[in-house]
Fold this protein.
Amino acid sequence: AQAYIQYEEIQVADAIRHARPEDNNPAREPHRKGGDRRKNDKNREPRGPPSLFSAYTPLTASREHILTECHAAEF
């Protein structure tokens, strides 16, 4: 019975939340074409280590070409 009561409470809360969408969404800042937001982001740390790969095989390469590259590669 307790699970059913919790289910009903969740359904009522969802109905109330969806009935007033203007109250749930915080006001967004106006879009700035000048890029003022980006100027403040220059002091951010790098996202992660640089990529270890210098070349990629295109998705349209034939299987023969890919297998030839694998066979010639040194590991």
